[in-house]
Amino acid sequence: MILIRFLIISICVLYILRSIVRIFLPMLFQSVVNKAQDQSRQQQNYQQKRPDGRVKVDYVPEGRKSSVPDSEGEFVDYEEIK
Q: Using CA atoms, how far apart are residues 50 and 69, in angstroms rounded to an integer?
């Protein structure tokens, strides 16, 4: 008698848990998916705000002036190989 009572209670509890999981598990997954989508949108918006190909330099160190003017460039010695 005790075994039958235990089985009936166990089956009822499992049925109730199964119903609860079917209701709440999709809600949990939906919230996780929504958070991931929001993060993705924020990342895309951040990337779109930056102009492409532009560099912002906050600090330019004062260094040595080169003896070669910028218009001439640098000369590199080389040997021609035959």
A: 34
Determine the Cα–Cα distance for residues 32 and 30; give it in Å rounded to an integer. Answer: 5
pTM equals 0.40
Contacts of 68 (CB under 8 A, 6+ apart): 74
78 Cα distance to chain centroid: 48
Q: Which residue has the higher pLDDT, 48 or 11?
A: 11
b/e burial code for range 41-71 (CB count within 10 A of at least 16 → b):
eeeeeeeeeeeeeeeeeeeeeeeeeeeeeee
pLDDT 10s digits, 37-81: 999 888 887 766 666 677 777 777 776 666 666 666 667 777 888
Q: Is-contact 7 13, C-beta < 8 A?
A: no
